[in-house]
Write the structure tokens for this entry.
Amino acid sequence: RGAPTRVCQFSRSWSGSPPVCVMVEINTDVNTAAALLDQFYEKRRLLIVSTPDNADQYYKLQNIMLQRAGCGLDLRQVTVIELLGLPPREVGRIKDRRLNSEAIEQLRQALR
């Protein structure tokens, strides 16, 4: 929150108030993909990572890169949604928060 731009004044001070970082509250306890995705509309970017198997070497490599880039992704307002495994043992998550199985299936259908 705060002014999107600030100008350096002749008095060597900045105009406006400094921006404040506010964590976005994401409700993962929703039953549809639409309800989940609506929370991000015009607020944050999404990166959806989907794999049928956590042991996949490409998923592991991508996961390592995403963990290293975590701070940069937050600064750029990017949220990562992970869809792991296959039904009935599939898991969907945003950071450490799990997604509803119905929302996971709808997200997968939308990505096909």
Notes: The radius of gyration is 18 Å. Residues 57-68 form the longest helix (12 residues).
